[in-house]
Amino acid sequence: MDFSGREQLYRQLYDILFQDIISGVYVPGDLIPSESELMSKYGVSRATARRAMEMLSNNGMISKRRGVGSEVISSRPNTSLSRVTSYLKKNVDDRVVAEKRLVDASIIPAPADVAETLGIPEGTQAYRLRRVRYAGDEPMYFEVNHFERAFLPHAVERDFSKESLRAYVNDELGIQWSRAQQRIYAVAADDEVARFLNVGDGEPLLLVRRVSIDMDNVPRELVMTYYRADRYHLEIELDS
Fold this sequence. Notes:
alpha+beta; Arc Repressor Mutant, subunit A; Chorismate lyase; 6-stranded antiparallel sheet; two-stranded antiparallel ribbon
């Protein structure tokens, strides 16, 4: 497992289990390790183990049996391609020290697009966190997180320039996600984003818009991440 943050842990764990199933380590009728066993073996959180197993279930490869465990039901996923993986990759040396710097954290009236995405009335109090990711002294991407304030009532009191938002939400609060919806756009930098990223107004960017959905099927988080197109590229892997 790579804990550097370059690839999400649940995706890495899913890949390990996926390969074990298609290679015959686990065959239909076998039980795969439980969440607790995966946590102990790979050093991941329960949320990470659960998410990886949910992905296998959604692919039609395992089925959870109450009181028994998760059983392999197919060695092939129920999609025409066994895996489609896409991620953004840096065009810079990974040895450069990276850090996220806080722009601001505030309570704002939810604008129309945020309200619609989170299923709340426009103007509802929302928690907004804005940060810039640096590699050395160079800004790489600008990230904006939105939550309904009532969902994270004490987030504004935390300092996410020093602690992980994801660890706070997942581990400290115990919030679990069922899935996320993600779209990628090519956009031009507006004045504000250009200033944060130290690029010219109108420079091309990659915008990743992600909506995280909880276990009750409620959209809880909207993340807008603006990547410099001269520092990142989109890479897609297709396995048939």
